[in-house]
Amino acid sequence: MTSSPWTSTASGPTAEHRRGRSRRWLFRLAAVVGSVLVMLVVLETGFRLYDAMFGGFPFLWDPALASRKQTKLCNPFLLFRGGWEDYRRRAKTPEQVIDPKGRELVRIVCLGGSTTQDVTAFVEEQITYPSELQRLLNERLSGENVVVETINAGFAAHSTLHMLILLETELLDLRPDVLIVYENINDLTANYFPGPTTPAYASKFLHPYYLPPEMTVERATLLDHSRFYTWAKARMRTVVNRGIRYTDEPLDLPHAEVFRRNLEMIIAVAQAHGIDVVLGQQAFAADQELFERHFCSKSYNREIVYPRIDQLTRHFERYNQIVREVAEAHELPCVNVYERLKYRHELFADVVHLHAAGSKEVAAEFAKRLWEDVEFQRILTRKRGQRPVIAKEPETEQDSIREEVGP
Q1: How do residues 82-94 score in pLDDT, each as one tens digit?
Q2: Per-residue pLDDT band at 240 (split at 50, 70, 90)
Q3: How far is CA 244 from CA 192, 288, 305, 348, in A?
Q4: Model-level pTM?
Q5: Residue 65 gets which letter from DSSP?
Q6: What residue segments make up the domains of the chain, in order of their start?
Q7: 3-state helix, strand, coil in the chain (%, to 5)
Q8: Residue 117 φ then ψ, to 5°
């Protein structure tokens, strides 16, 4: 008796059995794919809810349209500046936006990099050092016809070169009374990039890390519209690029004079427009762990060599000393935030960026120094509509200040 092709034989399963097994396999595959899709939807929803609750982003925010994907440059001379936004509301809660309501306005523009932008403090407590400075000064002016408004003009990675361009092309239109310049680290690290700095800082800022997508080959893909994917992609880059190369050899600071020149040019532009200038010596934590927390995953680390933390600290102090030298040469106030926070590492999120408690300290130091400054008191006197009282023979230096500017 011959066997039918539809019956089981010793040589293998029947065709019907094979079809059943195929169906079970397809069902399992569909279940796995469906489970993965459901998990991705849950993750995507979770990331978007988190961003909406804690990051201030709309639930339907498209990460492919973020600044790192499409910058929509409003200022072609600031390659990673991004699009235009209202400076009066930048990095402030609605309650921190100043409405003069018939009062005289004293406008202070705070110029700097990410330490002025102060994202960490803003995420933690919805404050920045400029917004805290505004609050502290207005507490002193409570009940008067004068109110202080601070403008946060800090942008991540901006050096004094970018600040100079930003001042000339955008910030002068705000007609500030006072300009605060608070910068060090972004200029300092240009010394660790290989190659010449002509034109200024080209060794650093022509690296693809800093260039906007208009000048790089990276383009947004379909997956870049996913918040979860963009987060995972950033974390993978962190792992791949993790690592720092150090040297024990002494390193020069070939671009230090560029830093000095840029500061002097910022002062010259400001003073030519009747703006008082205050310089700040940036805070820094001489801690290896805090340094690596910020710099360990930069994509340019494969191309540069860093000094050890002791030498880096000396370099940072040298740049702060240049700030002081420029301030003294131009007889300007120099606010030494560095000394105030030098040993208070618990206030630092990394080597230069501060937690909200640290930003409050920075604001307090600037507020104290500004209030003591004769030129700032002259501004207040002018805004109050008073005439300065000039003393002929003051008994002490403090009496001289008090009598010159009034109560």
Answers
A1: 777 899 999 999 9
A2: low
A3: 12, 11, 7, 20
A4: 0.77
A5: G
A6: 23-53, 63-372, 380-407
A7: 55, 10, 35
A8: -55, -40
Q: What's the rounded Cα separation, in Å, for the pair 137 and 141?
A: 6
Tokens 């796995």 sit on residue: 32
CATH number of 63-372, picked from 1.10.10.10, 3.90.1150.10, 3.30.420.10, 3.40.50.1110? 3.40.50.1110
Tokens of 160: 């004094």
Question: CB neighbours (10 Å) of residue 351?
Answer: 24
Orientation angle between helical segments 288-295 and 309-329, nearest 10 degrees: 80
Which amino acid appears at position 112 of this protein? G
Q: Position 218: which residue type?
A: E
pLDDT tens for residues 186-239? Answer: 999 999 999 887 788 999 998 888 876 555 545 567 777 888 887 777 666 655
* Cβ-based burial of 38 (10 A; exposed 0-12, middle 13-18, buried ≥19): exposed
Q: Which helix (H) or strand (E) holds 307?
A: strand 306-307
